[in-house]
Amino acid sequence: MSDVFFLAEFAAGAPVHSAQELASGAAELARPAGGSAVGLAYGEGATDGAAGLGSWGAARVLVLGEGKAPAITYAAALASAVRDGGVALLAPATPNGRDLAAAAVGLLGVPAFGPARAVRFEDGRLRAEASTLQGAWVTVSEPTDGASAPAVILLLAGTFTPQAGSGEAAVEPVDADGGPLAEAHIVESHAEGKAAVNLEEAQVIVAGGRGVGSEQGFAQLQELAGALGGAVGASRAAADAGWVPYQLQIGQTGKVVKPALYLAAGISGAIQHRVGMQTAENVVAINKDPDAPIGEFADLFVVGDLFAIVPKLTDEIRRRKGA
């Protein structure tokens, strides 16, 4: 079969952004091979909302389970759904996506790749592209012949662009062979701050590093991000200093983002940080050090004092918006 499966998490009755993204990506991958995108829906509202994934590219949706249970409890249903067909299972590189992807690999004995920044078919073969060695190398991998179940590919946020359309997907439930893999329940949950929640989906990110100097310094970046309609991020140095929560950290040990605009203020651009933002479409850097590594890959490198530049930039953006 040439179908491409994708994980589709639901929350509060609607598919999360990664589900929309992977639905369009799976459809894009499957189309040239004559297959279709098949969703694997789970979570709160999955049953009622599954058909709506058709507007993002899914032809069929298999419902793994409904409710607020931890994602790992749907692993047995996932294995049952993909055991006998498909060429790939796309999973988002999120905590829930990683849990289910790992369980699928363990239950089915299939290869896994990623976190990948691109996936494609070349000469009829599935290939996944990922950064390794802190971004110093790019590897392209493919599964060997003879696999009976689809390869699992973890994908970074922003790998595909959601393409909204119309139509509904055919929906059917999945019966798990042997029951749930794990018995688990959520004992506590709480909402993160808006900036942290939207960081991986933001099209504009204003990020600060050691050069911002303090928690108060990040207040200026928040003002700029607000004027641009974006979110605030940070380097590990800023998070380690306690100036921002770790949920805002971008880099090798933080989040991986792919915005249309990444504005870095007071960030040197070490390779560990670059891993988390190198796929941004446009990079603007502000740094008083003309030899900062970030200048080597920034599209626009402004050498100067961020505390003088950022407030003026914020005021100018607001002025032009109000004009």
Give a quick set of tags describing it.
323 residues, alpha/beta, Rossmann fold, 2 domains, eight-stranded mixed β-sheet, five-stranded parallel β-sheet, 9 helices, elongated
Topology summary:
Layout: E1 4-11, E2 14-15, H1 17-30, E3 37-43, H2 46-49, E4 58-66, H3 75-82, E5 88-92, H4 95-108, E6 112-116, E7 118-122, E8 125-132, E9 137-141, E10 151-155, E11 170-173, H5 194-198, E12 204-208, H6 215-228, E13 231-234, H7 236-240, E14 261-265, H8 271-277, E15 282-287, E16 300-303, H9 306-322
Helix pairs in contact: 3-4, 6-9
Structure description:
By secondary structure, the protein is α/β, with parallel strands linked by helices. The chain has two domains: 4-173, Rossmann fold (3-Layer(aba) Sandwich); 194-322, Rossmann fold, CATH 3.40.50. It has helices spanning 17-30, 46-49, 75-82, 95-108, 194-198, 215-228, 236-240, 271-277, 306-322, and strands at residues 4-11, 14-15, 37-43, 58-66, 88-92, 112-116, 118-122, 125-132, 137-141, 151-155, 170-173, 204-208, 231-234, 261-265, 282-287, 300-303. The strands form three sheets. Strands 1, 2, 3, 4, 5, 6, 10 and 11 form an eight-stranded mixed sheet that branches. Helix 3 packs across helix 4 (95-108) and helix 6 packs parallel to helix 9 (306-322). The mean pLDDT is 87.
